[in-house]
Write a structure and sequence with these properties.
By secondary structure, the chain is mainly alpha-helical. It has 4 helices and no strands. The chain has one domain (10-76).
Length: 79
């Protein structure tokens, strides 16, 4: 585990206290970890998320449709 001494603005300190209380965490270190983890889930590219991988596996098992060239596609789908 890495340890760091950081300076936090008062607003950030208050937010960490709220996160700490809301999730019943022991200390601000856990609150920081929680916030970073939650942000990281949104920040990571979707290709790295397990649910994205599962979705792609399901799609790859579907039967493909054949449309031919663009003119056949337009005829078939009324475009």
């Amino acid at each position: 585990m890495v340890q760091a001494v950081i300076d936090l603005p008062e607003e950030v300190n208050q937010i960490l206290n709220i996160v700490k209380a809301r999730y019943n965490l022991k200390d601000k270190s856990q609150a920081i970890s929680k916030v970073v983890f939650e942000y990281g889930q949104d920040f990571l590219e979707p290709q790295l998320r397990p649910e994205f991988i599962e979705k792609m596996k399901k799609i790859s098992q579907e039967k493909p449709i054949t449309v031919g060239d663009i003119e056949q596609f337009k005829k078939k789908y009324g475009l």
